[in-house]
Sequence to fold (241 residues):
Amino acid sequence: MNKHLEELIELSQLDKSIDDFTPLIVTAQKKLARRVEKRDDILKRIDSLNQVIGKANSSLFAYEEQIKTLQEQLKRSEEKERVITTEKEMQALSLESELAKEKLIHANEEIARQNKIIDSKNDELSKVQEELDKSTQELEKISTEVDAKLASIDRDKGKLFNKREAKTMTIDMKILSFYEKIRVWARNTAVVPVRKQACYGCYMKLNDSTYATVIKSEEIITCPHCGRIIYIEPQTAEIEA
Fold:
């Protein structure tokens, strides 16, 4: 087999091995991302619950202030009662007192309702906080595992990159440039074998003349259909010979 062709086959195999790490990296990152998303969803629920509790507390404070005002109003009404001299004034004061008492009843009912909301949401918040603690622990565990996995991948990729760099130093620059141009669009199928007289990049059948030239492996041949570099695998070449 042509020496340059052998070098390109080895280089393409190295490139494929390097690129094979990509789905492993993506899978690891997705696994971590799912845990982060789960944790973030819990944080959003906690934030929503805190907003409800905060709103209820604000309403509670407002109704408590209203009760103080109404109680003062009723106290003043009692004091006015002692000095009222006309029936008309008494009726007006009585109506004012009745309205104040109704508002007082409503305010107390609202305070009871807001306290129920606060108690309910605090119970829910306690449970969600437990979910957050568990999710955070899981996230930390997965994060450690993913970091270790990515570090291992980086080490393995580094070794392959070193091999690739060493390999490219021995390849003729024109041939390397030719390979890289094909790799831009063909990626890991820049160099492919020929099987059953077909290019295993585009799967188109080669004519007998081209196929005979490929079998000889005396030069670098490209597929006439797709432009990929093609070669005959050793075992296939032996059978064809």
Remarks:
- The mean pLDDT is 93.
- Strands lie at 191-195, 198-199, 221-222, 229-231.
